[in-house]
TrEMBL record:
Coiled coil: none annotated. Belongs to the phospholipase D family. Keywords: Lipid degradation, Lipid metabolism, Signal. One of its GO terms (molecular function) is RNA endonuclease activity producing 5'-phosphomonoesters, hydrolytic mechanism. Residues 1-30 form the signal peptide. The lineage of its organism: Bacteria, Bacillati, Actinomycetota, Actinomycetes, Propionibacteriales. Residues 46-56 have a biased composition (Low complexity). This is phospholipase D. It comes from Nocardioides psychrotolerans. The keyword ATP-binding does not apply.
């Protein structure tokens, strides 16, 4: 699900089957769109960058930048398990910052309270939809000094509305200054902190360990969000080194160029593979994004999408008529995709290029006014992991469609 104008409806959040970057990915069946061949690789090590170099304040030997992807299926609670494990391993004095739209998880509440009582400094921001949620109130009331939990009505860095539509804090991310022996752990996810999310949704986590510049960028924006007042230019795109970039929303102006459309238009046609998983894709903005994908398809790219609900019928018509293959991973109200990623492979100036974008942004107009986060990671291992999971989900969606047609 996703925020809607007048957002008083039940939302869900995390879930299921773990796929780690570095693990072998199940090959796609013949019916699935072709993806890059899978392989078994080790932990991803990003190219050297300022973000992974030593500094005077750093310990003598810093851990190499590592990227881990967790792709979940309903019922497995893998995202929640990762977060609660990190909270248990955070040492006294560590700082944990969490941002989610909806919050109702009793398990996360207990883990956060336990960490704070051990001396971890816990700071949590949630969207206005959860201000009256009893579980969130219990968290806010139970945290000791130096820790806090707050709700934000409207956008934390803009206002209550954008271009005539209601704004929300919709970002989903967690940062940990320390976990076990590791520093600068950043977790970007599609999952809210709800119990329903673990039982009903497909979600993902993209985790980066040791990337100080990403950790710091998330921290700076968090400080702005915690102040809960408009900033002059809330939209920010930052290249962070090591093949990592982050885009922070809301947009600064309704007239600015759509970053999703620009992202797609920047891709070459022939020889490109484009895989989309999007859980909320509709309205005029969704149509513009669909047309950008069709343009790439007509230029020779292999384009396929796994969608969920809501999915605008006009968006679907534009995609299918334009040659983009589409399957729906909305299997019902208790099993559906909440994924929001774009995985691409194409021939660049220096050889084959693979990239993954993932985060909280839905492809519809209201997202322009929401606090959203999208992170991009370059590299074959991330792409193979996401493309491989796409193929698995495509196979499930296609099989469900064929069964229903009998």
């Amino acid at each position: 699900m996703s925020p809607r104008p007048g957002w008083r409806f039940l939302l869900a959040t995390v879930s299921c089957a773990v796929v780690l970057i570095g693990n072998a990915v199940v090959p796609a069946p013949a019916a699935a769109p072709a993806a890059a061949p899978t392989r078994s690789v080790g932990t991803v090590h990003a190219p050297p960058s300022a973000s992974s170099s030593a500094s005077p304040s750093a310990p003598p030997s810093m851990p190499a930048l590592r990227t881990r992807a967790v792709l979940d299926r309903p019922g497995e609670q893998r995202v929640r398990s990762l977060l609660t494990s990190h909270l248990r391993q955070a040492p006294p004095g560590a700082v944990v910052r969490g941002v989610v739209w909806t919050y109702s998880s009793t398990v996360m509440t207990q883990a956060l309270l336990d960490a704070a009582r051990r001396g971890v400094r816990v700071r949590v921001l949630v969207g206005g939809i959860s201000c009256a949620e009893p579980t969130f109130r219990a968290l806010a009331a139970g945290l000791p000094a130096k820790s806090w939990a707050r709700c934000v009505r409207g956008s934390a860095r803009s206002g209550d509305s954008f271009d005539g539509q209601e704004s929300n804090l919709h970002q989903k991310s967690w940062t940990f200054s320390g976990v076990g022996g590791e520093r600068w752990v950043s977790v970007v996810t599609t999952a809210n902190a709800t119990d329903v999310a673990g039982s009903d949704q497909y979600n993902d986590v993209l985790q980066l360990v040791g990337h100080r510049r990403l950790y710091q960028a998330l921290g700076r924006v968090f400080e702005q969000q915690a102040r809960d007042r408009p900033v002059l230019r809330p939209y920010r795109h930052v290249e962070l080194g090591g093949g990592v970039a982050a885009t922070f929303m809301p947009w600064t102006s309704p007239s600015q160029h759509d970053p999703v459309v620009e992202r797609i238009r920047s891709l070459p046609g022939a020889g490109s593979t484009i895989r989309v998983a999007q859980s909320n894709w509709q309205d005029p903005r969704g149509l513009r994004i669909a047309r950008a994908l069709v343009d790439r398809r007509r230029a020779g790219a292999d384009v396929a999408a796994v969608v969920s609900s809501p999915f605008g019928p006009r968006v679907g018509a534009v995609l299918r008529e334009g040659g983009v293959r589409v399957e729906s991973a909305w299997f019902g109200p208790h099993r559906y995709s909440h994924l929001k990623f774009l995985a691409v492979a194409y021939d660049g100036a220096h050889g084959r290029m693979e990239r993954v974008w993932t985060g909280s942004e839905n492809w519809w107009s209201p997202s322009r006014g929401h606090d959203e986060l999208v992170v991009r990671v370059d590299g074959r291992s991330a792409y193979v992991t996401y493309a491989g999971f796409f193929d698995q989900l495509w196979r499930e969606a296609r099989a469900a469609r064929l069964r229903s047609a009998r």
